């Protein structure tokens, strides 16, 4: 069984303080994350799936601090997906940032309800020292909900957490956006908890591993199907063979299993090792060969659109897993680019003739799963395709576009990166 500490160490390998941006969909989490990173409103976000993870090196008069900011979106797994995933991510947080779209009164109750769930979770896990920051976001818009009203609604759920509420916006110059005040408060809280020895390391290590495991498995709110599947995937990833052995097994028609986990790992290992252009063809050809020649896949037929769909989803997830410390010019940090990720993004560029292969480690796949938990959902395609379209003879033979919504766009992801 996996402990929180091991999960988090693999997810955020550096020593940075991890800070999740949580809140309802459309509240502005992704916008804020990149606004902080670039000190400017430079991205056009699309509804996120999975997570966006960014290094945020911050500079203050009293010293520097490195945060790993990430937003967990509701994503493809349904509106409750993010909160069901909380148990995997929150225990090592240095703070929790809850984003409210203060211009949206209609969804206020829903936001309070989800916030209450997260607070309840923190209580249950005795994570009561974690500072909680509520952002009354989109403060540039007219008729926003007054900060005092938000305080009255949210604060009672905060119990003993250090709590603060700030209006913020990404639509004003950085210095007038409210964000610098938020970060200064966060910095002071982290400093204070360092002095008192209460940083996450101390918080989670005060419990025995046995106690953690028991709580993980018995917590009433966290028993949804996808969370259990993620746990199952992570457990399998713990004891996987090396990527080289795995590829060898694929070539020799001798994979350990023929199931969703194996297919996702296959796409991941091939795309990260060979890049998208070459990898995509290897997956198409390799799967057709496997299905035609292996008893393991007896009765299965190659499905072109389904295969393409998963290549796209896994490729998108690989892009999301790249954490950089300063890959774009940031006023926080002007040192040269350093990639600290599972795989250098350049391995994935479709540039003919250029193959900058790098075989991922087993840990990399583990981390990929944590950042992109939605890939565990074998029915994810139903978010994009109707059954009639996906199961049509045409879709089995050739690539058919989704009829419900467009596939996640790699171009948008790349725009964010620049
Ligand atoms: N007026 C205004 N709009 C904002 C602000 N911040 C974000 N938005 C817009 O709000 C919308 C939602 O922003 P996102 O950053 O995608 O929200 P999110 O919480 O990440 O949404 P999901 O990924 O779906 O969970 C986008 O249209 C943004 O441009 C802001 O400060 N002011
Ligand atoms: Mg988002």
From TrEMBL:
Compositionally biased region (Basic and acidic residues): 198-215
> Pfam families, alphabetically?
Arf
InterPro entries in the record, alphabetically? P-loop_NTPase (IPR027417), Small_GTPase_ARF (IPR024156), Small_GTPase_ARF/SAR (IPR006689)
Annotated positions binding Mg(2+): 30, 48
* Sorted UniProt keywords: GTP-binding, Magnesium, Metal-binding, Nucleotide-binding
Record carries keyword Ribonucleoprotein: no
Residue ranges for the region (Disordered) are 198-218
What is the name attached to this protein's record? Uncharacterized protein
UniProt key word GTP-binding:
yes
One GO MF term on file is: GTP binding
Chain residues that bind GTP? 23-30, 78
